[in-house]
Design goal:
Elements lengths: L2 H5 L10 E5 L4 E5 L40 E5 L2 E8 L14 E4 L2 E3 L5 E6 L13 H18 L7 E8 L11 E7 L4 H12 L5 H12 L3 E5 L2 E4 L10 E5 L11 H22 L4 E6 L12 E6 L6 H6 L3 E2 L3 H9 L3
Parallel strand pairs: 2-15
Antiparallel strand pairs: 1-2, 3-4, 4-7, 5-6, 7-9, 8-9, 8-13, 10-11, 11-12, 12-14, 13-14
Helix pairs in contact: 2-5
Length: 339
């Protein structure tokens, strides 16, 4: 399949490889469709959610004492629906300012100050984000907004990264559905690159323009409901990568309205359900990108969904240029069964 031919409304029998520019980061992506596999041919995590543990799950009701006291609890009828707790093994902690200390000719270090929290999405041990009902999906986004607002009050925290690691291949160590929020004392390169991408784009917002262009193109839009657009972006770096974009233009997620938060939470739920229906219960990473806490740069907050169905080879490792063997146009077709 020729992705470029798809953009002109035609299909060709012979696949055509392409380089595509990711305007968010300024990097090139290789779309190599002549290497594509069927969905069932992708490498699967043989036991993505089969965690053998001798002790009870610390995230399940009745075992709350296994964790530090909750930072925030959302309850109903005396039973908790979502809890935010400190991570027992934090990557970032403390309040010491980030000051680099040179300890050798090419060695420098700084304290890893900050915050590391866990959002336990639901009391149900087997209920991933793909299974949440509307109210619970809304609550996940509300809790995330609340915690980002709290992080913004911490002087040492410059940026907060929300993530979900689902399955072993994505880095999860516990089966119970949860996310993590890490408040860190610097702005990571990925965000620096994306902010630069918004600055480079002239005329309007980069992601507002993406929404408009993808609506016109139609064949990469996975869903478009309630002011949230889910696309397999033109510059997809990995098979079945998705981008969730709220239509309302805002740089900070913490400023999003309740309706927008609800719509995004449900759009994520539905997209994850579509991925599972097509690929099975594969591992995935969910990454939220929002502005650094005290920044006012041009930006539009959004969410990346990346299934872990294809590993990087030596070329990707050596160059930083990904090779995507499933064109985003084909990913959208498979996800929506639009033949």
């Amino acid at each position: 399949m020729d992705p470029e031919a798809l953009d002109s409304g035609h299909r060709q029998k012979e696949p055509v490889n392409q380089l595509r520019l990711n305007p968010l980061t300024g990097g090139w992506v290789t779309v190599a469709t002549n290497r594509a596999l069927r969905p069932e041919d992708f490498a699967r995590d043989p036991s993505p959610l089969n965690y053998s543990r001798s002790e009870p799950c610390p995230f399940c009701p009745g075992h709350e004492e296994a964790l530090p006291p909750a930072l925030e609890t959302y309850d109903s009828g005396g039973e908790w629906r979502l809890r935010v707790v400190p991570n027992r093994y934090p990557a970032f902690q403390g309040h010491e300012p980030m000051v680099a200390d040179k300890v050798g000719p090419v060695f420098a270090k700084a304290p890893a100050s900050g915050i590391h929290e866990v959002l336990v999405f639901t009391p149900n041990h087997k209920q991933s984000w793909a299974d949440l009902d509307d109210d619970q999906a809304d609550l996940v986004m509300t809790a995330l907004r609340d915690r980002l607002a709290q992080h913004a009050q911490e002087p040492v925290v410059r940026y907060s990264q929300a993530i979900v690691n689902h399955g072993r291949a994505a880095g999860a160590s516990l089966e119970h559905p949860h996310g993590q929020l890490l408040g860190i004392p610097f702005v990571p390169d990925e965000l620096v690159d994306e902010i630069a991408g918004f600055r480079r784009f002239t005329g309007s917002c980069l992601l507002c323009a993406t929404i408009s262009a993808e609506r016109d193109a139609t064949h990469r839009t996975v869903s478009d409901h309630d002011g949230v657009v889910v696309v397999a972006p033109w510059w997809s770096a990995r098979p079945f990568e998705l981008l969730v974009i709220p239509e309302t233009h805002q740089g900070h997620l913490r400023d999003a309205s309740e309706p927008d938060l609800s719509a995004v939470g449900r759009a994520v739920r539905d997209a994850l359900h579509q991925l599972r229906d097509l690929l099975g219960d594969v591992s995935y990473n969910l990454v939220v990108h929002t502005l650094p806490h005290h920044a006012d740069d041009p930006f539009h907050w959004h969410i990346h969904l990346v299934p872990r169905v294809h590993s990087n080879g030596g070329f990707e490792q050596g160059t930083g240029v990904p090779i995507n063997i499933v064109a985003p146009e084909e990913a959208r077709r498979l996800l929506t069964l639009d033949d």
